Amino acid sequence: MNAKRHSACFVRFDEELCTGCASCLRVCPTKAIRIKKKKSIRIVNRCIGCGECIRTCPAGAVRAATSDLEVLEKDHVAVALVSPVLYAQFPGVMPKDILHGLRQMDFQHTIDMSYFLEMFQFATEEFIKRNRETRSAPWPLISPVCPVVVRLIAFQFPSLMPHVLPVLRPVALMAREVKRRIIPFYMETAEVVALYYINPCPTKMDLTCLEPEKQTTIPEIALGINDIYPELAGHVRRTRESDAIPFYQTRFEYETCATGNASMWAMSGGEIADMDIDKSLAVSGLEETIAYLQKIEMGLFQDIEYIEFRTCREGCLGGVLNVVDKYLAKSAIQKMIKMFGLGRRLPREKILRLYEKGDFQTEKRPSRLLNLFGEQKEGLSIESMQKIEKILDVVEGRDCAACGAPDCRTFAEDVVRGSASMKDCLWVRAQGKKKSKAPSAG
Amino acid sequence: MSGLKKSFYIKARDFNRAGEASISVQNFLKSMNFDPGLIRRIAICGYEGEMNAVMHGGDGALSIEIDSDKLVLEISDDGYGIEDIELAMQAGFSTANDEHREMGFGAGMGLPNMKKNSDQIMVASEKGQGTQVQMIFFLNQGGQID
Questions:
Q1: Which backbone phi and psi does A392 adopt, to 5 degrees?
Q2: Could you report the per-residue pLDDT of B24-73, keeping only the tens digit for each?
Q3: Total number of domains constituting chain B
Q4: Which domains does chain A have, with CATH numbers?
Q5: Is residue B51 part of a domain?
Q6: Is residue B134 situated within a structural domain?
Q7: How far apart are alpha carbons B110 and B52 in whole angstroms?
Q8: Is A46 within 8 Å of A30 (Cβ atoms)?
Q9: How many Cα atoms sit within 13 Å of B47 on the Cβ side?
Q10: Disulfide-capable partner of A317 in A27, A166, A222, A266 (CB 3.0 to 4.6 Å)?
Q11: Do residues A1 and A73 touch, judged by C-beta distance below 8 A?
Q12: Is the pLDDT of residue A440 over 70?
């Protein structure tokens, strides 16, 4: 039902709704969008899934390429993978009621992320502790948690690839655990298990796409929080209104275990707040992320050990598929942290034993990601660059975007690469008309 | 084949925009798909040079010249120049003032870093006569990242 998608395809444009206004052109960090015939088109293999085009589109014509709720097929054992960001969408509601609501929606299992976030933290601390001695990776290490950041690095800052922490992301640990423990549980009855990741942003549609875990045939589906919200909100309301205490037998320890520590992860800074690292930074927002990556590339911040990047402002609760305003969500999360208190629950020794066995490390991520973009990016020759400079002299360089490219330099590149023509430029056309008028007037 | 040259203006004492010229050079080189390691080295050299010009220079320029066999990065400024170039090339030697240090600069690693990350470096300066730093990066050498 859900064929393997192109791993770099994260949004879709609705041609009917698109007015060709060029808003999305300007915000795209990888310049992946062009407007042709007054409609937006996207260069698929440049999309990193940041969702800025969804955020900015005034016509609502851009949507995440997440699946529709209809994919929840009855013959599957549906497992929902839940991040703390979902809880932030229900201010004042206890996570257990939200998880109960999900079960009402025919998810047989709800996996809370807390457990895996703690695992990731232990593994990260251990890696950094050892790296102080071995220096096997350069400082500052960059958090691999936000997949947009990792793709941005692969696309625009490939020299920083060695800085990306080679530890499996929490979502990958979570998916792996399901494969290791829940799926074997259903083997006997030969039921098909499907993983549903409930997403705050358009990027995590393919759980394996960032990790070199071997491909499996288990359906992995991404749902946007906004896709399931209306139905879920109804179930949550009914759960809270009913006098009966919802009873649910959990089979696995991580099915209901929201913690204060994990709640922090929804916010910018939540990843590093509780980590035992001497010098760390948390940066959020796409522009700031790019600016900091540029600085790291220029050799700055070598005295910092770890940097948490989130391309959404305020962190994952600023994700474009969320329903509740990010500041309301943040306040909800802060209350939840107060209620649950801080502290970890997993035993450090157990995690360290797994770390010793290499359970958390990933080494193939860089080569895999660089290939994702490397194949498609063709370098421009010196002659091409000279042509581009000449074109830039002619087109005035005001970045009006009327040609359908985000700025004049990109337009010039398109012309040299043969995908645009000089007469797409308004300025060039106007100059041409003037010239042709002049002789007839004189 | 004739080379391709691109220059970027550096404004003295404009710490808010410091680094912009090097970033422009990086983006320029990235669109030509140079080796990421080489771009990183040029980024580090460009930034160090640009900061020197911003801190000690008058206004200046950062330029990149691309040939089929090498890249030449040049930073020139109209500042007060370097009195003793040999001394300035030593790690830790710095003439930065308190203002620079407050901003986290002035560790005396600028020129040494540029030397470490480039294949060839030439510094020309005289007191009161400005400074020109020229760095050469040879292509097809399998650049190392530092």
A1: -60, -30
A2: 999 888 888 888 899 999 999 999 989 888 888 778 899 999 988 889 99
A3: 1
A4: 1-64 (3.30.70.20), 69-374 (no CATH), 383-442 (1.10.15)
A5: yes
A6: yes
A7: 7
A8: yes
A9: 20
A10: A266
A11: yes
A12: no
Say if residue A58 is preceded by a cis peptide, omega within 30 of 0: no
Q: What is the pLDDT of residue A222?
A: 83
> Is B69 within 8 Å of chain A by CB?
no
Nearest by CB to residue B4, choosing from A157, A298, A386, is A386
**CA atoms of A189 and A187, how far apart (whole Å):** 6
Note whether residue B112 is domain-resident. Answer: yes
| Three-class SS state of A95 | helix
The CATH number given to whatever domain includes residue B55 is 3.30.565.10
Among chain B residues, CA nearest to A373: B33
Per-residue pLDDT tens for A36-57?
888 877 777 788 889 999 999 9
- CA–CA min distance A164, chain B (Å): 15
Cα B141 to Cα B69: distance, rounded to the nearest angstrom: 10
Asked if residue A411 has pLDDT above 60, the reply is yes
- Domain presence at residue B43: yes
Cα A377–Cα A2–Cα A230 angle in degrees, nearest 5: 105
**Exposed / middle / buried, residue A149 (Cβ in 10 Å: 0-12, 13-18, 19+):** buried
Give the Cβ contact number of residue A249 at 10 Å: 5
| CA-based nearest residue to B4, from B76, B71, B61, B49 | B71
Q: What is the pLDDT of residue A245?
A: 60
* A residues 395-424 lying closer than 8 A (beta carbon) to B: 413
Of A320, A279, A341, give the one whose Cα is nearest residue A53: A320
DSSP 8-state symbol, A280: E
Q: Using the beta-carbon criterion (under 8 Å), do A378 and B47 form an inter-chain contact?
A: no
* CB pair distance less than 8 Å for B39 and A377: no
Mean pLDDT of B139-144: 56
Residue of A nearest to B49 (CA): A298
Distances (CA, A) of B92 to A199, A229, B119, B127, B133: 49, 58, 21, 20, 19
Coil, helix or strand for A139? coil
